[in-house]
Amino acid sequence: MILQEAMDDFLFQKQLAGLSPKTVISYKESISLLVRFMGTDTDLSKVTYAEVSKYIMHLYKRPLSRATVSTYVRNVRIFLRWVYIEYELPFDPQKIKVPKSPKKIVHIYNDTEIKEIFALIHTSEPWITARNRAVVALMLDSGLRQSEICHLLTDNLDRSRMVMKVTGKGAKDRIVPLGNFALALLDDYFSQCPYKDKPYVFCTRRGQALTNNAVRLFVNRLQHKLPFDLSSHKLRHNFATNYCIDHVRQTGKTDVYDLSILMGHESIETTKKYEHFAHEIIAAENNISHLDMCLGNGQKTGRG
Predict the structure, then answer these.
(1) Which residues are designated catalytic?
(2) Range of the domain at 22
(3) What is the pTM of this model?
(4) Residue 304's pLDDT is what?
(5) CA–CA separation, 104 vs 120, rounded Å?
């Protein structure tokens, strides 16, 4: 089998597995670079560790960010691992080292910033304003993705247990929490929405299911009104980090395993970065300044 055929088969299998079109496109973009570099007609027996290493070095020479290179290499390793299992390769792709992405600090919104976010959500249509406030609340307080917001069904809101069933990546269902404030915003939206008989929670001005693009556009417009960064993904980041912070303060542990379930992560390693962010914040806030103790106003300037 040649490399191009293997890629086509891999992408087809991912589609059959129910992966979102966005995820399949991401795989295609990454793997196509490898296929073009090595040659579409290259036999799988020629896909060696040395040749793949040359491809990775080629990526470093391109004007790509470290995060992008990491994504490309990670996707290629997933693809080659699949080829290794389904067909045959001269080496185990597990040997491929994925470059570490640069560490970025997640901006955690303080109480004033959260109030500012909701205060600035405003449109000419009161029911659209109510809808957008409810959408932001569910991303910030329940960790929902854009696509999960758009596919959320009214029948999947469980008011008695204060939870929701959402459909995440790979068409996998999971249960997530529903806060009292978010529920109040949902009820405000339901009371004003002119479309009462729709199966989905959120709809457009014309009564159709809300789309990812519509959410992205209104969040972008909101971002331009704020003095700090805002995006759907940053709201989800805040949910995850605050989950860890709040649990450490209340119980002394982060419950990162439970968080990985709530976030819909396939690997707990993906979730652990939020645990690290949370501990960074708590450590900084709990720091005892030695200079303040020994040289601060009203404090002794020596130890004896």
Answers:
(1) 145, 169, 233, 236, 265, 274
(2) 3-95
(3) 0.74
(4) 46
(5) 27
